[in-house]
Amino acid sequence: MDDKNRQRIFLSLFFFLAGVCFSSWASRIPTIKTYFNYNEAELGTILLFMPISSLVGLPISGWLVSRYDSRIPLTAGFVMIATSLFFIGMASNTLTLVASICVFSFSTRIMSISINTQAINLQRRFDKKINGSFHGLWSTGGIVGVGISTIFVALNISITTHFLIIAIATLLTTLYAFRFLPTNDRATSGNKLSLGKPDPYIVYLGLLVFFAAICEGGMFDWSGVFFKEVVDVDLFTLGYLIFMIFMAISRFASDRLVEHFGMPRMYIFSASIVFTGVILAVSFPEFWPSLAGFCLVGFGTASIIPMTFSLAGASKKYSPGMAISIIATYSIVGLLIGPPMIGYIAHALNLRIAFLVFALAGLALIPISRLFFRYQNASALK
């Protein structure tokens, strides 16, 4: 096996592992809500600490990938994720829970910037698109993670035991596999952030990620609660599970779909599917319609992040790591606003009405994507 294919396999393993870790956390949010007896507004406030701590990690992650090979912060990020998951599972009071969540979110941001920098740089060594498949494996890891959560919930296995198992598996995998990741990928130029006139290329991509983050992050945090409290299903992880399954299907198909239809049409298609899925789940909050709606939302949101990060790697002003770091700021703001806002609206009105925020965010992708490609085409003619 040649070097680039071996690196692709092990980088794929880390994308898979990232999905397992994140979905293990997200699928257990209803467990945490019940254990601490939080209402929707209180849970929204707890979730607010995630994007705040992620925002703190953003400049640090950008600095790390500009100073070291990206596999170094990637490895450190996974070690911290495993440790913080263990402490989330052990938390017996709100202060310990919030502190552990902050470390989890901070380390996830470092890992995310590093792993996507690796993906974009490795993509350049292949003649075909492979970035969508990496994100597809993240979603596949998410399916496995929520599948494990579903089994553990059904067997009444505690969140403490659950997260301890995930933490140990993450540490062992990371310590073995990091040596096989791509090396010597530190960018020598494009690492300085320009504080002058904003680059429209980056701004438009950032706005696309912003609205995608509202949809995707909100569904991660609230899909289980929706199925438990609105659809009234005891096995509340089913909603999150179906969402992740269709995200994975979409991401594995996205590379071919983009090559066939082109990115401009894919953004419009994705936005339309998200809107339709949310409206279906909100209008008919029964098991099968909601399940179908979550299928559509998962399929629609999945391709937005891989497509946008691929476009970020083509920035003429910034290195891939710096471009992703800047665009990720918009993602964090979306996470900062979206999930907590859902909690506050749900507390004031109800969760069904709050979910309409996702429909509006999905629709916003259409005009923004059109503006981006219009700008891209105009710039190419200059």
How would you describe this structure in keywords?
0% strand; mainly alpha; globular; 15 helices; 382 residues; Growth Hormone, Chain: A
What's the average pLDDT? 87
Helix vs. strand class = mainly alpha
Distance between the termini: 43 Å
Number of helices: 15
When the domains are counted, the total is 1
The residue ranges in which pLDDT falls below 50 over 5 or more consecutive positions are: none
What is the makeup of the main sheet? none
* CATH H-tier superfamily: MFS general substrate transporter like domains
| Strand content bin | under 5%
CATH topology: Growth Hormone, Chain: A
CATH class: Mainly Alpha
Sum up the overall morphology in one term. globular
Computed over alpha carbons, the radius of gyration is 19 Å
Task: Give the ordered list of helices and strands.
Answer: HHHHHHHHHHHHHHH
CATH architecture annotation name: Up-down Bundle
How many distinct beta strands? 0
Mind explaining what this structure looks like?
The protein is mostly helical and 382 residues long. It has one domain: Growth Hormone, Chain: A. 82% of the residues lie in helices and 0% in strands. The chain contains 15 helices and no strands. The protein has helices spanning 3-27, 29-36, 40-67, 71-90, 94-123, 131-154, 159-177, 200-229, 237-261, 263-283, 287-302, 304-312, 320-348, 351-354, 356-381. The N and C termini lie far apart (43 Å). The mean pLDDT is 87.
